[in-house]
Specification:
A two-stranded parallel sheet has the order 1-2. Among the domains are: about 40 residues; about 50 residues. The chain is about 70% helix and about 0% strand. With about 500 residues, it is mainly α. The longest helix is centred in the C-terminal third of the chain and has 30 residues. The protein contains 19 helices and 2 strands.
């Protein structure tokens, strides 16, 4: 029997050994797989290293190596010999650090600013840690109670009345303003169709003002009794607590399910009473510090935090209004968003500071800082509305249809199903708006509010520290502060984004 040759598809020799796998861990592997894996990447790596060398090395030399760390005046930051290299003048920062933080806030009262910062940190940090309990109570304290306490801590003063007096004063001023506008419109209406429309609109405003005065009549009588009988603020606080608690009790189901709302309301007013007693608000309170004396990091944080927190509900309302089926609401939301997005922030600040008082009733005034806060909140809310609308558009229509099939109302569908998913999708966009708003607070210095950069520029006028490096040192210090806050917001947003990602890490 002869040997048959092997078929052509059968290998007669051994397969050669495969090359050793490329190492994918360690510093050397990172260099060869990420930076030097192709001629183009190698060229970009070399160019990047050269650029970093010419940027980072001089910055480190200026800020650390050649910097001056000790001194009492400008002489310590001047070069002793010709050609000597002098870096950052850190004694200047140490001498002006209180001005950078507090502005022109009176020195004996700066403990109030420190206490406000401490309360904000104590209430905010538990909100940022997901595993800590009592998020609802913590959020209520931070978003509702803390702004009131911070206002009286920073501004000072007492309270001449409480909810009844404040509510009646606001309603009366608003009703007077509406009535005056109605009388002016009615008087300006001439002959023709336009005159008839103006008279009709003016009569409508007059009727609205009279209706508001009629609604406020019981509260006005109660307010007059409290003031004429010279009752202490505790009577006003008690009346306000009873009225608000009863309203919440009735709105939450009365005798069936309203007991919890009643108890929470009463506990809240008891807490308000404790704050009033501790801060002596019923006896004049703390010394008043005008907002024109505020400055530095205090103003930056007040403006940015208030704008960020208040712009979210405004943006949500406008985003939902722009998608509404009611034409009036949709047109108003579109016009509002396009108007505020079409004007620069500087114009908004000038309008809020100098033009807004012209539209208010004569006996109704608003503090300059409050006007700025309102303008920034509306401006940021218009931008956030478009970001949130993008998140709403990313939610499939089947989500809302399934909720409606289960019998959920529009508000429950939006609040429990659609909006949480939409907000999760737009976390990067919202945080981007927050970071931009935090940096845009430097524009308030144009309207005589000295934020961090405004206080920094004011400190340059001190001849005691007039050196060639003072300007660069101050701006480097301010840049570090801005970077720390913005980078912290960016990293925390990544943490929240990964935690809320239902499909695992992206």
């Amino acid at each position: 029997m002869t040997d048959q040759p092997a078929p052509s598809f059968v290998r007669t020799d051994l397969i050669p050994d495969r090359p050793q796998p490329i190492k994918t861990t360690g510093f050397s592997a990172f260099l060869w797989t990420r930076l030097l894996n192709s001629p183009g990447n190698a060229l970009l790596t070399v160019v990047g290293i050269v650029l970093l060398w010419f940027v980072i090395v001089p910055a480190i030399r200026f800020l650390l190596v050649d910097a001056v760390w000790e001194g009492q005046d400008r002489t310590s930051c001047l070069a002793a010999d010709v050609g000597q290299s002098i870096g950052a003048c850190w004694p200047f920062v140490r001498a002006k650090i209180t001005q950078f933080i507090y502005g022109f806030y009176p020195e004996p009262e700066r403990w109030r600013v420190n206490l406000t910062f401490l309360l904000a940190a104590v209430l905010l940090l538990p909100l940022l840690v997901p595993r800590l309990p009592a998020k609802g109570l913590n959020a209520t304290l931070f978003f509702v109670a803390f702004p009131v306490v911070a206002f009286f801590l920073l501004h000072g003063g007492g309270i001449s009345g409480f909810g009844v007096s404040w509510t009646v004063g606001f309603l009366s001023s608003f009703a007077d303003g509406v009535g005056n506008a109605g009388r002016q419109l009615a008087a300006s209406g001439g002959a023709g169709g336009i005159g008839s429309v103006l008279r009709l609109l003016g009569n409508t405003f007059l009727w609205t003002g009279d209706a508001l005065n009629s609604v406020a009549w019981p509260l006005t009588s109660l307010r007059d009794w409290l003031q004429n009988s010279d009752q202490p603020v505790w009577y006003d606080l008690a009346c306000t607590g009873v009225i608000v608690s009863l309203l919440l009790f009735l709105l939450n189901g009365a005798f069936r399910t309203g007991w919890r709302a009643l108890l929470m309301s009463l506990m809240t007013f008891v807490g308000i009473g404790l704050v009033v007693a501790v801060m002596h608000l019923d006896r004049g309170g703390l010394p008043i510090v005008d907002t024109r004396l505020w400055g530095g990091l205090l103003v930056t944080l007040v403006v940015s935090v208030t704008g960020i927190v208040s712009s979210i509900p405004i943006g949500i309302a406008l985003a939902l209004g722009r998608r509404a089926t009611i034409p009036l609401i949709r047109v108003f939301s579109v016009a509002f968003i396009e108007f505020w997005r079409g004007v620069p922030l500087i114009t908004v600040l000038f309008f809020a500071t100098y033009m807004l008082p012209l539209f208010l009733p004569g006996n109704f005034t608003v503090d300059g800082l409050v006007r700025v806060l309102i303008g920034i909140a509306l401006f940021a809310g218009a931008y956030n509305a478009e970001v949130i609308r993008g998140g709403l558009a990313a939610i499939p229509r089947g989500q809302a249809e399934a909720a409606q099939a289960l019998g959920l109302s529009y508000w429950k569908t939006t609040g429990l199903i659609v909006m949480p998913q939409a907000l999760r999708h737009v976390i990067p966009g919202l945080v981007n708006s927050f970071i931009a708003l935090f940096k845009d607070t430097s524009l308030v210095s144009i309207i005589a509010l000295f934020d961090l950069l405004g206080s920094l520029r004011a400190s340059f006028a001190d001849p005691t520290w007039a050196t060639p490096t003072t300007l660069f040192t101050g701006f480097a210090f301010a840049g570090i502060i801005y970077f720390v806050f913005c980078f912290s917001m960016s990293r925390y947003s990544l943490f929240v984004e990964h935690r809320l990602n239902p499909h695992g890490r992206s």
